[in-house]
Amino acid sequence: MNAAVQLTEVSKVYGTGPGSVTALDGVTHGFAEGTFTAVMGPSGSGKSTLLHCAAGLDSPTSGDVQLVGRSLRGLNETALTELRREHVAFVFQSFNLMPTLTVRQNVVLPLTLAGKSPDRAWVSEVIQRVGLGDRVRHRPSELSGGQQQRVAIARALAARTAITFADEPTGALDTATALEVLSLLRDQSRAQGQTIVMVTHDPVAASYADRVVFLVDGRIVSEAARPTPESVAAQLAQLSSRSKVSP
Ligand SMILES: Nc1ncnc2c1ncn2[C@@H]1O[C@H](COP(=O)(O)OP(=O)(O)OP(=O)(O)O)[C@@H](O)[C@H]1O
Description:
Pfam families: ABC_tran (PF00005)
CATH class: Alpha Beta
GO molecular function: ATP binding; ATP hydrolysis activity; transmembrane transporter activity
Domain ABC transporter: 5-242
Low-confidence stretches: none
Radius of gyration: 18 Å
Largest sheet: 6 strands, mixed
Keywords: ATP-binding, Nucleotide-binding, Transport
Number of domains: 1
Strand order of the largest sheet: 6-7-8-3-9-10
Organism: Kribbella steppae
CATH superfamily: P-loop containing nucleotide triphosphate hydrolases
Oligomer: single chain
Bound molecules: adenosine-5'-triphosphate
Number of helices: 8
Helix content: 25-40%
């Protein structure tokens, strides 16, 4: 199976000299096309840094990242933006919604920016499925944090890009909505062949993924296929005791 996202010997060091922090330490990993992977690990283990480097939002100090077979090394900001617009969707903790646009306008914005015409029926369906069918004309300031997160998720699903990167996508949601959103992400990968890379602290969220990769101190230390909440929680407890960062 081809990798939709391939990291090769990726390191990221913040700062220089004695106070520098090695957030990623020689990570080599391929996220295969059509798979849903959860990235887990203790606080400070490098999960968000991995996601940002994998998505081309941050550049590694060394090593290479390939998205849909294209190396990001040497791409200028314009080329990177175009590559991301075409192939990548994001669901991040800070929802990055446009405050002046309605729910529906926010959901279709990436498509419009990429010069594509939205599939209206599909857009309506994803807005319904995230539970915002009665909020389409609202603006982000008129929504709760959880509802704003659902707009961000609908936006990622509507775009039907090859890859979605999600950082704690269910962190702000109540349990029922979180499970609905996780099911949507899983369906998206199974039915649409989308590659999903999701950072989460939650073993239940991770159990919706096909695989879990565990980071400790900037390195991938283990992987698990067909995770269950119990197996993930047990593995995390074991890893936390190995981390330099976590108490
Ligand atoms: N911009 C930055 N400048 C300096 N150090 C940073 C920066 N961003 C992250 N770090 C450091 O890099 C390491 C990894 O951070 P990262 O945010 O990737 O961890 P994480 O696993 O996502 O943590 P959490 O679970 O707490 O969100 C941490 O030690 C963090 O303090």
